[in-house]
Amino acid sequence: MADRDGVIWMDGKMVDWRDAKIHVLTHTLHYGMGVFEGVRAYQQADGSTAVFRLKEHTRRLFNSARIFQMNLPFTEEQISEATKAVVRENKLESCYIRPIAWIGSDKLGIGARTNTIHVAVAAWPWGAYLGAEGMERGIRVKTSSFTHHHPNVTMCKAKAVGNYPVSILSNQEATNEGYDEAMLMDPQGFVCQGSGENVFLVKDGELHTPDLAGGALDGITRNSIFTLAAEHGIKVVERRITRDEFYIGDEAFFTGTAAEVTPIRELDGRTIGAGSRGPVTTKLQAAFFDVVNGRNPKYAEWLAKV
Ligand code: PMP
């Protein structure tokens, strides 16, 4: 990732991709407190490029920082502009964008409250996160032996750097065993989310998804699916869900900025429904891609032209 052409927005200016470096004594590197976003821009039907739900992603970055009492030295407007600028200046069409804020290297030790807060935004092309085939056929998922964070251990409303080791452990475990992705249970034993995705179950034509009290991230794709489901007359229920409800569900899918809408065809060796992308998932996935690619003018306000 470090050795490529392009520019990265770093603390207010564009720097050469290869020069976007930080010191080894960076506080966040040692203690894991930092916040970030995952955003996507899509090439639009008219050939332009637009960032999907930029305002919501920037707002969540600032909310994450607020939770950790990190005062970002920029406004939301400045970070949104930086996000568009990295897409533009790197001449990207469809791409993934990574804003990140971290605590600097001024001082080490847990209590370094006066350290400088830094912000960077990078962007690069990134296709289907869980594979193009998975988008059509569905992926195979395994319940993790690692438990998702309790909301009082790490702050689950924040998209925080330190929340991700358990995601990595779970994903490692699942992929080592030949699965595509992991499903994490919350500390009470209910389904929480994927290692980097929210999850939905389809049962009798309704959508069910874990409520956020279990610690799942308040996903922006999840929220977009709520709106698209309402438009298609599909009821959405947020509640506690057990893993065996998925075993006997009709369909299931993951949502996320990286994962977009990825069907799940199997959990823990049990085929879900017909074992393929089901009709409700197909409908919502198509609706999602119509929206992000600017083919549905109703959602123009979700798209920020770069
Ligand atoms: N849960 C986790 C743990 C994630 O990392 C992500 C990706 N940001 C999501 C859910 C989905 O959130 P969003 O749709 O906002 O990308």
From TrEMBL:
Acts on leucine, isoleucine and valine. It is an enzyme of class 2 (transferase). One of its GO terms (cellular component) is cytosol. The keyword Thylakoid does not apply. It holds the Pfam family Aminotran_4. It catalyses: L-leucine + 2-oxoglutarate = 4-methyl-2-oxopentanoate + L-glutamate; L-isoleucine + 2-oxoglutarate = (S)-3-methyl-2-oxopentanoate + L-glutamate; L-valine + 2-oxoglutarate = 3-methyl-2-oxobutanoate + L-glutamate. Pathway: Amino-acid biosynthesis; L-isoleucine biosynthesis; L-isoleucine from 2-oxobutanoate: step 4/4; Amino-acid biosynthesis; L-leucine biosynthesis; L-leucine from 3-methyl-2-oxobutanoate: step 4/4; Amino-acid biosynthesis; L-valine biosynthesis; L-valine from pyruvate: step 4/4. The keyword Amino-acid biosynthesis applies. Its EC number is 2.6.1.42. NCBIfam families: ilvE_I, PRK06606.1. Keywords: Amino-acid biosynthesis, Aminotransferase, Branched-chain amino acid biosynthesis, Pyridoxal phosphate, Transferase. PANTHER family: AMINO-ACID AMINOTRANSFERASE, AMINODEOXYCHORISMATE LYASE. Belongs to the class-IV pyridoxal-phosphate-dependent aminotransferase family. GO terms for biological process: aspartate biosynthetic process; isoleucine biosynthetic process; L-leucine biosynthetic process; L-valine biosynthetic process. GO terms for molecular function: branched-chain-amino-acid transaminase activity. This is Branched-chain-amino-acid aminotransferase. InterPro entries: Aminotrans_IV, Aminotransferase-like, B_amino_transI, BCAT-like_C, BCAT-like_N, BCAT_family, Class-IV_PLP-Dep_Aminotrnsfr. It comes from the Bacteria. Its cofactor is pyridoxal 5'-phosphate. It comes from Derxia gummosa DSM 723.
